[in-house]
Amino acid sequence: MSAATAEAPILEARGLVKRFGGRRGLFESSPTVHAVNDVSLQIRRGETFAIVGESGCGKSTLGRLLLRLIEPSEGDVLYEGQSITSLPSRDMRRLRRDLQIIFQDPFASLNPRMTVGDIIAEPIRLHGLARGAAVRARVSELLGIVGLRPEYADRYPHEFSGGQRQRIGIARALAGEPKLIIGDEPVSALDVSIQAQVINLLEDLKERFGLTLVIVAHDLAVIRHMSDRVAVMYLGEIVEMSPVDPLYEKPLHPYTQALLRAIPAPDPKDRVAPQLLQGDVPNPTDLPTGCRFHTRCPHVQPRCAQEHPALEDAGGGRLVACHFWREIGEAEPGIGADDSADTALSRRLEVYRTFQARREAEPSTPDINQQGGQT
Amino acid sequence: MSVQAEAIAPRRKLGRSATKFLSNRSAVFGGVLVATFILLALFAPLLAGYDPFATSFTSIRKPPSAEFWLGTDELGRDIYTRMLYGARASLMAGVVSVAIAVAVGVPFGLLAGYYGGWVDATISRVTEALLAIPFLILAIALAAFLGPSLTNAMIAIGLSATPIFVRLTRGQTLAVKTEDYVEGARAIGLPNVLIIIRYIFPNVLPPIVVQATITIATAIIAEASLSFLGLGQQPPNPSWGSMLNTAKNFMTQAPWMSIFPGGAIFLVVLGFNLLGDGLRDALDPRDN
Fold first, then answer.
1. Residue A315 pLDDT > 90, yes or no?
2. ipTM, 2 decimals?
3. CA quadruple B161, B99, B205, B181: dihedral positive or negative?
4. What CATH number has the domain spanning A7-21+32-240?
5. Fewest beta carbons within 10 Å, which of A78, B122, B205, B270?
6. Hey, where are the domains in chain A?
7. In chain A, which residue's Cα lies nearest the Cα of B191?
8. Which of A111, A143, A151, A174 to mutate to test the interface with B (most CBs of B within 10 A)?
9. What is the pLDDT of residue A110?
10. Whole-model pTM above 0.95?
């Protein structure tokens, strides 16, 4: 069994359920929101695990449940094989050194009334990792690690850009020398050029300090670069869990397929018809019966509305929750083979070329007149 | 080169707020006004030309002159002298009663807002019950219960003003509590008490400072009312409020009796308000 111990997950969720609301009082009653429904997953030591899904699918809630920043309604979270949901608050606070979080909005995640130095020094002082002058030295070191100048320690958060603030947030997360960091959409609030920098930084830090990363995101393009495994969430449930490359090459669940189609392609030739999902995400206070995706699924069958599909092993370390994933996989060999997209593209290109030709014919006419007056 | 050096030079927290405060002209004006009144009150015995209690039947209701700078009252007492001594009572009443209100109200507001649940329910219901009673009526009732004296009047005014601070602090705490940085503080394992002190309190402070300066003004007026009813400053000890209330009987015959104490109340209230606004801006590190 020694092999099993070596493979033991660093963090594990067992049947996590989180419901919000549902309070019934004399004057108020609020509907129950099913944010996370029976989620189980295992995060391996040293991997980058991504949780993706639309807004409101419960992915951020799941991230917070894993850190016990909110209490689960049911289920358990195990860190290093030990349950953390029932730990007394004193022990939990000590354990928080190992488990850190990076927030989505760098403008809200730093206390505006503390200097950057104090913000980063807080975990160091709290956990007694250094004293006196050593604290400041450590703060300077951490600022250097995330690519900021040590002089910045005396400044306030509002003096920095979003990317710099996110680096400060990362420095603070690193200050307690954690083993696992959860990034709650760590780059979605940043400019695209800054996103790449922060992603590279996170990857460097992961290598350097042997971290385990859990990245919560709604952007599959960002995830592909950095993750080892991906869990796709829909309405509080994991519908597909897979190593990253097979997932992108051949998504099994119809919802994953729809998500991947929504990634914008930089080259027009690679574009496919988006085949957007119908309708909105159902109200999480009033969940659909059977498969939760059946109201929007293009492959829906009568069985889907009746029976709730469980996550089943699809081989190669992949799990999928769909009754018909085999049939769907055969019917649709891959994303990209769609002729209608090509017709649309060539038509658009033709229009563009005519326009170009016309412009060249009358080079003196300003653009505005062309658009407004001619046709 | 020098610009660069300045940009990265460490800027201390206190120095920065002070610089910002000093560059705000109206705030400095308010501060000077308040400081002037405090100095006048402190050095009243040195500045006054007369005994504040000495009556003189030969100089009843004299208009301002070289002899009596601000005139005399209906018992021939020098108004300038009485105003200097009265400033002590009025400023004390304003500052001490608000200090009581802040010291009691803010912690309860923080507890109610941060912990929620039954803590919040208990504190909020008591606060609402107190808020249902008009401010002055409550102060009068408390002062009457405690017995007439300036100290008791200050306690009564302070307790009457407490619910305002509980409510304000609770509301601000509810807003700040949901910020990511508070969740971040929990994520690093900070105990609740330290989260309240280091994360919540500094971020709810600015509106409290502003409310406090406004309430000082209200408290000075409330002290005047209590003194008029015989529940505050006891005669013959002067306070601006009691002077003003006596003066209203002589509004046409001796207008100086009301103009100067009234003007003093106006100026000190204005001073505290400007000071409060300036402090709020100076304490906020966000806008430069």
1. no
2. 0.76
3. negative
4. 3.40.50.300
5. B122
6. 7-21+32-240, 339-374
7. A93
8. A111
9. 93
10. no
